[in-house]
Amino acid sequence: MDWIREIDLVSKKFEETFSDFTQEEMNFKPGKKVWSIAQNIEHIILLNSSYFEYFEEIHNRNHSLPKIEDLDTKAQESVIALKPFTGRQRLKRTNTWDIWQPKKGFIDRNILRDFEESQLQFKNHIKGFEDLLLSETFIRYPGHLDLLFKLDDCIEFLIEHENRHWNQVVEIGRHSSTSNGS
């Protein structure tokens, strides 16, 4: 997978689809338990940026991992455990961990600009890994210290997660335009 291209595609979809939305449309919620478009975008930023410190540690070669004999097996188990909750098909839903919860109130329309900045940081981190063998480099999962991934799986997981929320916001956008009479 060409990760930079994939990240650019996600960014482009969000920008082209929602750049003309009003602040009210960006914050529209079709139900009490459903996030708005802006909240989904903020959630992506929060999740991705929670990895940035670890990306820096890996780049600086000081990322600490749990003391586990078989990192490969643990990484594979971690991917299997989380995959149903992160895929773009949205097969399973779960409660989002507090560290990745978006604001409950109104989110400024500038969230799209913040998203673009976060995507640029994400791409720059990936470019910084060019000298690493990503399939043999491990990273901890920020939400649970007992889980870890191979770095290439982590990057693919984050991109897949972005696409999952893309699918979610498209549905919300349809609700928003029908509720506003568009």
UniProtKB/TrEMBL annotation:
Pfam families: DinB_2. InterPro entries: DinB-like, DinB/YfiT-like. Residues 9-169 form the DinB-like domain. It comes from Flagellimonas meridianipacifica. It comes from the Bacteria. This is DinB family protein. Gene3D superfamilies: dinb family like domain.
